[in-house]
Structures are given as structure tokens and as C-alpha cells.
């Protein structure tokens, strides 16, 4: 499953994701996104900290694009 970059908002099965907290010895109290319907190999899973690190990059890239678009529009108006 390719969740893409950033926060996974929906699973490929169509269900919204939920945020849960791991209670394993390896990742105690680490939060993660998971398919809200089914926990399994073919359903969404991503660590929340990794998803949020990716989301910062996604949002920064969108902001840069919007800033450039605005500069282009201003230039067209002049
Ligand atoms: Zn799913």
C-alpha cells in the first residue's frame, strides 16, 4: 500500500484513519495512524511522528508553490 507522503487521511479500503498509541515494548506510547476499519497488512499504517515530519515538507512545498503563483499573478496585473 502506498500511502503517499504526509498524514494518511484515508485507507485504500475507503475507511478514515484513526490515531492510536502503541503499547509494544519496542515502541511504547508511540502514536500511529491506522485504518479505522481493519488492522492488517493491506490497510493503512504509519507512525505519527514520521507522518508529521513528512507533512511539514508537503505543506512547505505547497506554500512555495502558492507564493510563486501569487508572484506570477501580481506580475501579470502590473
Ligand atoms: Zn483499510
TrEMBL record:
Q: Which Pfam families match?
A: Zn_ribbon_GRF
Matching entries from InterPro entries are given as: Znf_GRF
Molecular function as annotated in GO? zinc ion binding
Which residue ranges does the record assign to the GRF-type domain?
A: 11-51
Q: Which UniProt keywords apply?
A: Metal-binding, Zinc, Zinc-finger
PROSITE patterns documented for this protein: ZF_GRF
The name of this protein is GRF-type domain-containing protein
Q: Which organism is it from?
A: Brassica oleracea var. oleracea
Amino acid at each position: 500500500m502506498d500511502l503517499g507522503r504526509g498524514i494518511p487521511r484515508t485507507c485504500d479500503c475507503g475507511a478514515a484513519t484513526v490515531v492510536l498509541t502503541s503499547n509494544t515494548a519496542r515502541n511504547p506510547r508511540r502514536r500511529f495512524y491506522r485504518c479505522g476499519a481493519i488492522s492488517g497488512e493491506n490497510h493503512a499504517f504509519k507512525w505519527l511522528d514520521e507522518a508529521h515530519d513528512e507533512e511539514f515538507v508537503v505543506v512547505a512545498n505547497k506554500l512555495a508553490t502558492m507564493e510563486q503563483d501569487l508572484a506570477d499573478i501580481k506580475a501579470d496585473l502590473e
